[in-house]
Design goal:
With 124 residues, the chain is α+β, with helices and mostly antiparallel strands. It has a single domain, classed as Ribosomal Protein S5, domain 2 (2-Layer Sandwich), CATH 3.30.230. The chain has 3 helices and 4 strands; from the N terminus they run H-E-E-E-H-E-H. It has a 4-stranded mixed β-sheet with strand order 1-2-4-3, sandwiched between helices. Strand 1 and strand 2 form a beta hairpin. The N and C termini lie far apart (41 Å). The relative contact order is 0.22.
Length: 124
């Protein structure tokens, strides 16, 4: 089926209000050496992601684009139990990693986020 695993426009946070909603209503947060992942649950039919790679953190445009491409690819291949909006904030230390190392660190970040969601749900 064409388009089954695409990164469509509906999978992205498209405007400043969407980013602000995640920053203001952040219910889960996970960090490691490559960045920070914020999350807020939504009622939308699918999960969406926004990627922030600041020029202050990563100087070269090619490196910023590489980070965004790797995060989008990982998000596209991941399945989500519930819909939520996510924001990934990149750190400088993610530029020197190979694709395999970056994927490992990003997977670790997603696992931390899921663990924090579970601990939040069990404490309520």
């Amino acid at each position: 089926m064409p388009g089954l695993n695409t990164f469509s426009k509906t999978s992205r946070l498209l405007n400043p209000a969407s980013y602000a909603a995640v920053f203001d209503g952040c219910s889960e947060k996970a960090s490691n050496k490559i960045g920070t992942l914020l999350s807020v649950e939504t009622t939308l039919p699918e999960a969406r992601i926004g990627i922030i790679v600041a020029k202050r953190q990563i100087k070269q445009a090619s490196q910023r684009n590489r980070v965004k491409r790797l995060v989008r690819e990982d998000f596209r291949l991941r399945s989500f139990e519930q819909s939520a909006d996510y924001v990934f904030l990149a750190r400088h230390s993610c530029t020197g990693l190979s694709k395999k190392q970056f994927s490992y660190e990003l997977d670790s970040l997603w696992r931390k986020l899921v663990a924090s969601k579970r601990s939040l749900n069990t404490s309520q």
